[in-house]
Design goal:
Helices cover 5% and strands 36% of the residues. The protein has an eight-stranded antiparallel beta sheet, with no helix packed on it. Strands 2, 3, 6, 7 and 10 form a five-stranded antiparallel beta sheet that branches. It has a two-stranded parallel ribbon with strand order 5-8. The two termini are 23 Å apart. By secondary structure, the protein is mainly beta. A hairpin with a 6-residue loop joins strand 2 and strand 3. The protein contains two helices and 15 strands.
Length: 221
Amino acid sequence: SPSAFTMHKTSALTLLASTSLIPSTLAAYTLVESYDPTNFFSKFHFWDKKDPTNGFVQYKPLRSAAESGLIAIDTKSGTVPAIYIGVDHSTKDPAGRASVRISSKKSYNHGLFIFDIEHSPGGICGTWPAFWMLSDGGKWPEGGEIDIFEGANDDRHNKMTLHTTPGCTIQKMSGFSGKVDTPNCDVNAQGQGKNMGCGIKHPVVKTQETFGQGMNKGGGG
């Protein structure tokens, strides 16, 4: 599925595909694709329509985002170039803040995705950074949605969520590194908020922050 996300700074997104080895009980991963400072923005479509979640935001196309400094390859902050994706945090626009929402040009059916985030917005009211996997053909929520990295406002812990139609639930409530917040993946499940899906908030230890300012202070994730 194509990925859609709004992020602040990252060094790379790496896709590894599993390959079987002999004996069959062993497995290894082979690098299939790398989204890095040399090619990152060319691998994505830039959403420039109205926000489908009705946020107070104006999404900008590639050229406009680059010219206004919303996207860049940062070569000054460290020894390794970093990918910068930001938001206009100074202009007061009654139509909403200028920002970026992108989705990958390529689709994937499976893989191990490694996303190296050095700094993410967080701890501030009105922020909603996220990295999602969406269907490129199916209507939402029939096509499903996998939220890998997401939080809003002053969240301090990452929440991983699945959004589906009826029939998908988390039946085992233990054994996770995080805590199950909502077990039913159906976006219209009774007893849960609308569009909640089945979510696991990570980690259960409050002092281990996996989102926002706490994650940033720890050097990213």
